[in-house]
Design goal:
By secondary structure, this protein is an alpha+beta fold. The chain folds into 2 domains: 193 residues, FAD/NAD(P)-binding domain (3-Layer(bba) Sandwich); 180 residues, 2-Layer Sandwich (D-Amino Acid Oxidase, Chain A, domain 2), CATH 3.30.9. The chain is built from 11 helices and 21 strands. The strands form 4 sheets. Strands 1, 2, 8, 9, 10, 11, 19 and 20 form an 8-stranded mixed beta sheet that branches. Helix 1 runs parallel beside helix 8, helix 2 runs parallel beside helix 8 and helix 8 runs antiparallel to helix 9.
Length: 394
């Protein structure tokens, strides 16, 4: 007997689990389908911004989040060293955390299940099921099984099979970043700082990107780098080799392993991060896109977890609202919410994405950021004085 749901969600990552949790609150029949068996590894910087922490708190996970490794500041090397506190906003935490995606994603998926969503692991979605009019009415699994729903949320990642099958195009397609990371032990004390390295040079060109060293606790660090694809020679970069070069620029007394050793233990992972709305409008009849399938990565920094959670929560809410009050042919409510939340930010981000692809511009930008007076003026422009992060030169 064919099962039918109110909402079928393809993908059990942060956006899919958040959407499922949100929709299940209404009593809707929700199913989450994911090709993996959880817990599973997922390449990521593993950093939770204050905003990401706030979404997890709103989902009722404050106690669980408090057990993650806490970070209270950001240290930037540009190349001079300076620190930023997290900005203080009403109702928002003034700190972040780090946690592996293995742990975070398993927690979120279990949380959605506890809220009433049905979870099916080892259930790989190969594409959408459409009716005679082209409206999405469910999904097809790799096994050939069809799962039907009044609406579908495609939270199936950067290479979304649903988006590919529907030939979704957007004027914003092509905006993405390439990132690579490895987790490793280091001979240094655990830290409460997210360290960012802006001086990232390839064949003499300042890259539009940065390196990072994020503490995970217990002497383990997530170390990686990322750069956007507006740099004309980005395809010439051997990301693994480049990560090895970055590791060699870090302090020798940290006794970091060589890239060859990290490759042997298979801890080096690279990924692509779509950003700036690569599916727009973010819906078609019967389906909404969230997380990487939406291109939800933040163009300015590549931050993805907070955007995945926000898009998932919004998609879950908007899907149920539309089904209750109109039907699955029109999810304009979701587009309006996403535009209101991110529209201006992502327009600026896409502009900057193109601009900093020019090495001269990227180099000039790093020089400006390295100037303490300029930074102070920039922060006062970006933040209200009482809410802005505290800026200290080390």
């Amino acid at each position: 007997m064919t099962q039918r749901y109110d909402l079928v969600i393809a993908g059990g990552g942060p956006s899919g689990s958040a959407a499922a949790w949100q929709a299940a609150q209404t009593g809707a029949r929700v199913v989450v389908l994911d090709k993996a068996e959880f817990p599973r590894d997922k390449p990521c910087g593993d950093g939770l911004t204050a905003r990401a922490v706030s979404y997890l708190q709103k989902m009722g996970l404050a106690d669980e989040v408090s057990k993650f490794h806490r970070v209270n500041r950001v240290t930037v090397y540009s190349p001079s060293a300076w620190e930023l506190s997290f900005p203080k906003r009403p109702g928002m935490p003034d700190h972040g955390h780090t946690v592996s995606r293995t742990e975070l994603d398993a927690l979120l998926l279990k949380h959605a299940e506890s809220a009433g969503a049905e979870v099916r692991q080892s259930a790989e979605v190969s594409g959408p099921e459409c009716d005679a009019n082209g409206r999405v009415v469910g999904v097809v699994l790799k096994s050939g099984e069809k799962v039907y729903g009044d609406a579908v949320i495609a939270a199936d990642g950067a290479y979304s099979p649903i988006k590919r099958a529907l030939k979704i195009d957007s004027e914003y397609n092509g905006y993405s970043a390439i990132a690579i990371r490895s987790e490793m032990h280091a001979n240094r004390a655990d830290s409460d700082s997210l360290d960012i390295y802006l001086k990232l040079v390839f064949q003499g060109d300042q890259l539009p990107g940065y390196g990072w060293v994020f503490p995970m606790g217990n002497g383990v660090f997530n170390i990686g780098l990322g750069y956007v694809n507006s740099y004309k020679n980005w395809q010439q970069i051997n990301a693994t080799q480049f990560l090895g070069e970055f590791l060699r620029t870090l302090p020798g007394d940290w006794e970091l392993p060589a890239i060859e050793e990290l490759k042997k233990n298979k801890s080096v992972r690279a990924w692509r991060l779509p950003m700036g709305f690569t599916a727009w409008p973010p819906w078609r009849p019967g389906v909404l896109f969230a997380g990487d399938a939406l291109g939800a990565g933040k163009p300015a920094s590549g931050a993805g977890i907070s955007k995945a959670l926000e898009s998932g929560l919004t998609a879950g809410e908007c899907a149920i609202a539309a089904l209750t009050n109109g039907g699955p042919d029109d999810f304009t409510n979701y587009a309006l919410r996403m535009e209101a939340a991110w529209g201006n930010e992502y327009r600026r981000g896409r502009y900057m994405h193109k601009l900093i692809g020019y090495p001269r511009v990227a180099n000039a930008g790093v020089k400006l950021i390295d100037n303490a007076l300029f930074r102070d003026r920039l922060l006062k422009t970006l933040y209200k004085k009482e809410q802005g992060p505290q800026h200290n030169v080390k």
